[in-house]
Amino acid sequence: MNRLLLLNGPNLNRLGIREPSIYGTETLKDVESSLRMLLESHGWQLDAYQSNHEGELIDSLHGAEGKYDGVIFNPAAYTHTSVALRDAISSISVPVIEVHLSNVHAREEFRHTSMLAPVCRGQIVGLGTTGYRIAALTFLEENKKG
Ligand code: DQA
């Protein structure tokens, strides 16, 4: 069975109540269940994990090797700072799609740079929670047999 890992970084546990004018009112649980429904309808499985700790996110990426067909990752603020997460993504062969709810390019300048994007399969920004589903659809499409 094909499997995806949904990985969310710091402060995303507060989705729905955190700055709703920027991040919307859907909770992380809502995101996980709509993504799970989409994937299960295609016979895929989803595991979801959120952490506020860089090292735990690194461990999750390492653990994804050999276990998942792809990772959908919103690294949140670590996007802009973490060489360690970039190296973790480079160290595995599982493709990672970077997702941001907000349009980081329309926000503060420090959000315009991603340390991770160059080593990711792709990056989706500014489409709200739809971005997670677009990432999932990309993995479904790319793993079509035949
Ligand atoms: C975010 C954008 C980041 O700049 C910010 O630090 C976040 C959320 C987004 O999904 O739009 O925590 O990754």
Your description of this structure?
The chain has five helices and five strands. It is of the alpha/beta class. The chain has a single domain, classed as Rossmann fold, CATH 3.40.50.9100. Strands 2-1-3-4-5 form a five-stranded parallel β-sheet, with helices on both faces. Strand 3, helix 4 and strand 4 form a beta-alpha-beta unit. Helix 2 runs parallel beside helix 5. The two termini are 16 Å apart. The mean pLDDT is 97. The structure holds 1,3,4-trihydroxy-5-OXO-cyclohexanecarboxylic acid.
Short description:
The protein has helices at 20-23, 28-40, 54-64, 83-90, 130-142; strands spanning 3-8, 45-50, 70-74, 96-100, 122-125. It is of the alpha/beta class. Strands 2-1-3-4-5 form a five-stranded parallel beta sheet, with helices on both faces.
Write the layout of secondary structure elements.
Blueprint: E1 3-8, H1 20-23, H2 28-40, E2 45-50, H3 54-64, E3 70-74, H4 83-90, E4 96-100, E5 122-125, H5 130-142
Parallel strand pairs: 1-2, 1-3, 3-4, 4-5
This protein binds 1,3,4-trihydroxy-5-OXO-cyclohexanecarboxylic acid.
List key phrases describing it.
146 residues, alpha/beta, Rossmann fold, five-stranded parallel sheet, globular, binds 1,3,4-trihydroxy-5-OXO-cyclohexanecarboxylic acid
